[in-house]
Amino acid sequence: MAGSENSVTVHSEWMEYAPLIILLPMMSFAVILFLGRVFNGHPFWKNTLKEGGLIALPVMAASLILSLLLISEFLKGHSAFDSLFETIPWVNTAVWNGGAATDSVSLGFGIYVDHITVMLLFVASFLCLLINTFSIGYMNTDPINDNRNHRFYAEFVLFCSGMLGMVLADSFLWLFIFWELMGLCSYLLIGFYYERPSAASAAKKAFLTTRIGDVFLVVGLVMLWDLFGSLNYAVVFDTYNIEQVAAHSAGTLQWALGLMFIGAVGKSAQFPLHVWLPDAMEGPTPVSALIHAATMVNAGLYLVARMFPFFGADALHGDLDDLAFIIASVGGITAVMAAAIAFVQMDLKKVLAYSTMSQLAYIFTGLGCAMYLANTLDWHHDKDAHYIVIVAFGAALFHLFNHAMAKGMLFMASGSVIHEVHHAHHHLHHHDDHGDDHGDDHDDHHDDHFDAQSMENMGGLASKMPITATAMLVGSASIMGLPLIGGFWSKEGIIANAWRVAQDDPRFFLPAACVLIGAAMTGFYMSRMWFMTFAGKPKNEVAAHVGPTNTWIKTPLFILTFVTLSSIILAGMGFTHWASDTSYSFLSERTLIEGIVYEMDHAFLNSDAFFFILTYIAIFLGAVVGPGLAMALYGGSLAEGETAKPWMRPVLRLSAWMNGRFYFDNSAFRDSTFAIALQNRLYIDEYYDKAMVNIVAGFSNKVAEADSEVIDGTIKSIESGSQSLSTFVRSMTTGSARDYILMVSVGTLVIFFLIWGMA
Amino acid sequence: MSELTVVEPFGDGFVAALGPELMLFAGLLVLILLPNLGRGTFRIPGTQIRLPWLLGGNRFKLTSDPRLPSWIATITLTAAFLNILYIFSEGLDRVAIMTESGKEILLVNGFSRVFELIFFGALALASFSSMNRLAVKGSGSKLSEHELYNNRRQGDFYILMITCALGMSVVALAQDLFVLFIGLELASFSTYVLVAFLKESKAGVESGMKYFIVGSVASGVGLYGLSMLYLWAGSLQFSVLATHFATSGTTALPLIGIGFVLVGFGFKVSAAPFHFAAPDAYAGASSPVAGVLATASKAMGMLGLIRMLLIVAAPESSDGSAVWLICFGALAAVTMTWGNLAALGSQNPKRMLAYSSVAHAGYMLAAITAIGAWNWDAAVAGDAGTAAVAVLTALLFHLVVLVAFKLGAFLVLSVLESEGGASSLSSLGGLAKREPLLAVSMFIFMISLAGVPPMAGFLSKLLVIMAIVRVAVGDMGSEIAAGGAFDVGDFHWVWWLALLMVVNSAISMFYYLRVVVVMFFDQPEEGREGPLPSGWQVRTAILLCVLTTVFVGVAGNGLLELCEMAANSLNYDW
Predict the structure, then answer these.
(1) B393 and A99: CB-CB below 8 Å?
(2) Rounded distance between C-alpha atoms, residue A664 and residue A739, angstroms
(3) Where are the beta strands (DSSP E) in A152-264?
């Protein structure tokens, strides 16, 4: 799979346009920002362009179309083609060492396309377009955003270009540059409501926390540079180069990759750098969707997936298994921890935030296990081993895809719920300006203490928001891994592979157990969220008055519901195979029907007894135990006279029955110290704060003292010393030509003596 | 490197070889004639018949336009500048102008052409931006259109600009010390008059006189040295001097001679202690002229030093290091430190820039010292060549980019000058509010002078420092690169010059940034609110300087290659 082995440089007309995928959004950033100031004064243009939303939309559509063309080109050739066009020179250090080109280093930007690129490119550009559509419905209808939506769209498109650039870049250096561009945009977007102290501090927290990871990432990249003399994929993934490095510094390479992994941990919000993600919910909902589904968090996964060629290299056989274990364990621990915290969250978006952490952790576990397999099996020569490795890697990537789609949809659906609850509240409590929800009573939004995001203010929305409820149902099912839907196909694969590895290496029992327990926990908290929001009677007056949402919001939900449901088709087409290995392609092995049958057979009637049982345990935990508990606690039928869509009725009826039959009092758990600890996010934030205050702040106070006394003192004394010297020196310039001639004569004599002395 | 073509004076190919110089000459003639064209008539003696002959009398409207001389000078200099660029793009022919008796007079090669690029570029910018800036009643008065328009002396100013350019280009081309001296004096005399051009103001006359007197003394000493060299070698041809030096270089006569000649050039580059007249001259002259002194004139002095030290008293003809090594090391150290210290306390921005240019001279002297420091052992001769070329490249690069930001800074001051400011730092107060673009330009020039990335000044300073270190490290370089242990004590002592340069750069930050602080944080002086006098020419020139400063700083490859080529072409002649 390493790009170097079978990389073919294919030339086609669409590749020439590949840079536009990045450049179009980047340029429209400036356009939207500039026009924003112009059209804010012109109501006609402001409304027509939706404050920039309709500038961003075609741009993102163009990016998607170009991406699709590139992808189809790639699939036709179905092999890696790197360096699509001549690398654009950027920095050439020949300048720095006097024009000597021999030991110079040149850095340039190029585009590298392989299967991982292709998959993420589609995910990113597709979701960015849908989120853009959603934003028009969400952002532009909220008066609080009036006259500053252009800022949102500008930052949004820049964010998208960062993601697309990161995916397309042909070197770790440019990956890092776009990575940081995204970091900047996420800071700006999370702090979009900068007037709220909570948003400002959340933005700061996200920025600083990810920055900690980035510091390690930079160190890792520098080490990698030191080992390979380049950060270009073509160079670092080259089999020969890897052999050279492996010969004398495999350990260093493991450290370099490990440090880079810490960067990914920060970006993808894994334990212990996860603290920023729940706070990032302070941003507008499209931002949450963007950060969680399409872009930022996937960046970390992408980085780790990019490291795969090192793990798969023959030369490094068995050298990197410790790192693979660390990756899988960080994933496993985070999966359970985040799921546990999600149990007690009341805020709709925070449940989803923790769910994101948990699901990303699954993917990390999947990647870690795949990397372990690639690193320890002789997969280049053994056909069975090869199959195992690519299926393991493919399962992780497939889960990335499924999770991105489902979570993007869930966030948008939750945004839709929050939006409508907020409006309902607004209507209900302000009858005077009924029908004027674009009114300019901004203060109202700040002052009231109504929390439109709390699930305690919802309930029974299934009948009022049918599309949203359906989307949320499908999305939750996909995340839970209900059989046949979305994430099921990939999640089963991850769990199975974790256990497969655990059989080889007992250390892996930790992540394997974690992901299995996590499946049950996911089942619980996702169902809890759905039932609390959509089932039962409205919990208060506001929830009773929620209305349906607008078309801009519905469209992306509609599309994503279908994408999530059609996951079976992707699985049948062999997604897991071609996503991880370029020697496979869509439908290369089997026809669609055969493929689906094969996948079904493989999933439900596994010939290996161990995996057969494991599958049913996982299904039982994720689809029966978890949801069952949630139904018993939070289920219930809708209020009198309200009817849900037919496909939701059985679920509601079942939940009502469960609730009536098995309801139990969970207050003992709810009031336990553990639950309180969970509510306080296991006090991790507090520990970090304390550490910051005591260690970092204490240290920086000392440094500040040293700075003002030692450094400033020295500088000041140098300054005053030079000033008095300066006065002396300038006093020599008397202004009299006679003195100047005298000095010339003195100088002549000095030259004279010095030359004499030398000779 | 193309073959050397030999041409006799006024022989075949002479015009083609000296295109830019002849262009200047033609421009000079036009400049003298054209503004004097009028309805003048000539009466045939003894008759009443008058024949119109167009010279004198009532001048035509076009020819009496006071801006005409400036336009002619600007166009001439720009054309010469572009011509050289064109020559570079077409590939350069190396042409030697030799007399029948085989004496080489002038040599056209990449090295001389790059220097001409500096001269013509600086003078073109200066003459362009002087168009509306030439004060009639001294540098203290505000200009009215009327005063400017009736200024008959406009022509003289620009004639001097062109003669200055001609003199400088002769210095660049000369292969004979005597020819070089003539060119030097032609350029110097032009600058003496240009400095004193504002004869109505006390400062102008005084500074011009001082500059002239001290300059004459320096020239006199230099000429004396010249005569000694002639006495010794019987010729002032560089090639003859170089061969003689290689055999009997360390005797008294040539050493005294070379020492004296160096005094002459030392004055031109304003090396301490020959620099004393420079701050006075800069402060008294109009700002564009001061800018020319700080860039083109300095480059001319450097050119002389390079010719003298690297060709005549070539380091490879001595054992170990060059004879002038310690002398120049000391000169460089004193010059850069002195310049920076004096600039630190200057309250007059023009004097400050003058001292800063003294400091820059010190940096360049350090670079020249480094070339001499190389152990010209035959065994490492190959390396010696590359190291020396690296230094020379850096030096040339520095001289070229200096035109952009040093002259640019003077041009900003010239805008202030036309409202009577620029003689005290406080007159820059609040410039950011009055003229944001000018303030930002000045900011860019200042940080470039201080050597802050990504400006051109950073790159040039870095290149100079790196080249010096490279020389100092010498053949230990490859060991160090391979991770071997090294001892700083084993480096050649020119290493300390590089260190001193870094320390000096740190000191210089203070006074460069003080200008920025005044511009951006202080309030305007009373009576200086509002925008400055207009003049698109000077603003265009400033803009060009800003663009060059930033562009070269970010993408200096092309220029660097050009400088390397020039440095190699000098090396080729060694």
Answers:
(1) yes
(2) 104
(3) none
What is the DSSP pairing of strand B50-52 with strand B94-98? unpaired
For residue A5, give every residue at least 6 positions away whose Cβ sits within 8 Å of its Cβ, in sequence order, or none: A239
Partners of A88 on chain B (C-beta within 8 Å) are none
Window 377-436 of B, Cβ < 8 Å to A: 386, 389-390, 393-394
Q: How many angstroms separate the Cα of A367 from the Cα of each of A243, A300, B255?
A: 23, 12, 76
Non-local (6+) Cβ contacts of B561 within 8 A are A99
Question: Residue A89 class from Cβ within 10 Å (0-12 exposed, 13-18 middle, 19+ buried)?
Answer: exposed
Burial of A633 (0-12, 13-18, 19+ CB in 10 A): buried
- The kind and range of the H/E element at B98 are strand B94-98
Q: Is A732 on the interface with B (CB under 8 A)?
A: yes
CB A209 within 8 A of CB A280: no
- Considering only CB atoms, which chain B residues are within 8 Å of A98? 389-390, 393-394, 463, 466-467, 470, 564
Helix (H) or strand (E) holding B436: helix B436-450
pTM (two decimals): 0.66
Domain regions of chain B by residue span: 322-574
A56-95 residues touching B, CB cutoff 8 A: 92, 94-95
Return residues 211-250 of B near A (CB < 8 Å). Answer: 213-214, 217-218, 221, 250
Q: What is the C-alpha separation between A411 and A391, in angstroms, rounded?
A: 29
Best A88, A105, A730 member to test B by mutation, with max B CBs in 10 Å, is A730
Q: Hey, is the C-beta of B310 within 8 angstroms of any chain A C-beta? A: no
Closest A-chain CA to B565: A99
Structure tokens at A529: 């969220």
A746 in B contact zone (CB under 8 Å): yes
Residues present in chain A in total: 759
Interchain contact A701–B (C-beta under 8 A): no
Residue with tokens 């440089």: A9
Answer left, alpha or beta for residue A450, where phi above 0 means left and psi between -120 and 50 means alpha.
beta
Q: Give yes or no for A756 touching B (CB within 8 A).
A: yes
What DSSP designation does A672 have?
Answer: S
Helix (H) or strand (E) holding B104: strand B104-108
Which DSSP symbol is given to A647? Answer: G
Q: What is the pairing mode between strands B4-7 and A88-92?
A: unpaired
Output the six-digit token pair for B266.
């030392």
Which residues in chain A have their CB less than 8 angstroms from residue B507's CB?
722
How far is residue A290 from each of residues A2, A158, A341, A404, A548, measured CA to CA in Å?
30, 12, 22, 10, 23
Residue A533 contacts residue A638 (beta carbons within 8 Å): no
Nearest CA in chain A to B562: A99
3-class SS at B18?
coil
Contacts of B346 in chain A (CB under 8 A): 730
pLDDT, block means (10 residues), chain A with 759 residues: 39 68 87 78 74 83 88 67 53 46 61 82 88 83 76 87 88 88 87 83 85 90 85 81 82 88 88 82 76 76 88 81 88 89 83 88 90 83 81 86 86 84 75 44 48 76 81 86 79 84 85 86 86 80 74 82 80 70 62 76 76 83 82 78 78 81 76 78 81 83 87 84 84 83 88 78
Structure tokens at B394: 């850096």
Q: For an interface test with B, which of A748, A749, A753, A756 has the most B Cβ atoms less than 10 Å from its Cβ?
A: A748
Contacts of B6 (CB under 8 A, 6+ apart): B95, B96, B98
Q: Are A489 and A398 in contact (CB under 8 A)?
A: yes
Amino acid letter for position A340: A
Chain A residues touching residue B564 (CB < 8 angstroms) = 98-99
ipTM for the complex shown: 0.82
